[in-house]
Amino acid sequence: MRENRNLFNKLDWATIGIYLLLVFVGWLSIYAAVYNEASRNIFDLSQRYGMQAIWIASALFLAIVILVIDTKFYAVFANIIYVGVILLLALVLVAGTEVNGSRSWFIIGPFRLQPAEVAKVATSLALARLMGAQGFVLKRKWAIFKIGLIIGLPVFFIFLQHDTGSALVFGAFLIMLYREGLSGWVVNCIIFAVVIFILSILWQPVSVLMLCAITCLLVFAFRRRKIVPVAVAAIAIFVPYFIIVKKLFPALDIHTPHPDYIFLAICLAMIIAGAIYAVRHKLRYLWYIFFFFIGAVALTFSVDYVFDNMLKPHQRDRIENLLGLKEDLQGAGYNVHQSMVAIGSGGFSGKGFLQGTQTKYNFVPEQSTDFIFCTIGEEWGFIGSSLVVLCYLSLLVRLITIAERQKDAFARIYAYCVVSILFFHFAINIGMTIGLAPVVGIPLPFVSYGGSSLWAFTILLFILLKLDAVKWD
Predict the structure, then answer these.
(1) What's the helix, strand, coil split of the chain in %, to 5?
(2) Does 20 have pLDDT greater than 90?
(3) What tens digit of pLDDT does each residue of 312-335 get?
């Protein structure tokens, strides 16, 4: 075929080089993490590092197969692949094996497959097929519905598998959607919702509501570009609240109702007055501000229910440990604490290959999978850890460059899906090993032990490399 001519010269070898380097670093780190004095052979199939060699060889074989396949295959069969993976996600609920509380694995002898990993590839292809079609307009409601359905279906089934970490990864597609024209308001509202969720755990509801009110006033000030209406609104909200709660009720010796409800009543009165003001001055954007505040109120008062009834005990414990609400170094906070000890003990240059004591004596659970970065930090120190982080940043920059030079919408959208997924995994995995993100159980791309994740990331990357190579024809 024409597109396979001179393919070798058209491939982005800088990206492939970074990929191979990360895979090699992962293999060595797995060897160090589960090193066995009785079996030093890195190809010993009874050990994880031996099995990882099999996964690496098979991943490279998959990469070659992907490069041989005609690029039209990925666009033409994107929806069929997606439907097939959705069926696998449903089937694993019935025929899958439960591992660490999550029924998300097919296990046949030494072979293990996690459909949730493959779902990232299928969803990326389906989104690229939908959004890359001629005449597609992201801002249409029907288009948003279709996108939500494509992303939401795998998330639904993965949540049923009790694999919250893998489900959260699909939120990374927001990065791609923003690049393709999703309103910044949507992204900002989602970010603010996360902030409200966290603050509602840390603060009293009235404090969160005050912050929301201040935010709405600032947005109003930015759009209206007049300070007087904003100042009047602020005075009308906060001055009556403090007079009633701090002065009037204590002076009259009246039992003070819950301050949350007093503040809500004042805000409700302001919303009614603001609605009249919006109608008279035809300020459509003011309605969005009102709906935003109402949504923030609903979220603030629902956090306690979600936190207490929808999250599992170990998930609540991890969040509370991360936020500093409690310290449980022998329970929920054990993994992160030991990981931070391991990374900190590596110092500037590390203890040396196979010399990590935290690693060697198995202080850190899952040190060859989710917490593989602590092995790197302990044995290679700040220098080695920084070089690994630099490799990931270089890979992401390279992939963004590849994405931006695509002339075809399908290839560009797919490229940003790959960038989004890799960035989320990289940021959250390293963040949780150093205590900056909750432990959600997702692997470090190309480095963590596991066939499913390595295959999925390899397929993601090499489909993009093939699409990029063919564009030169």
Answers:
(1) 75, 5, 25
(2) yes
(3) 777 777 777 767 666 666 656 677
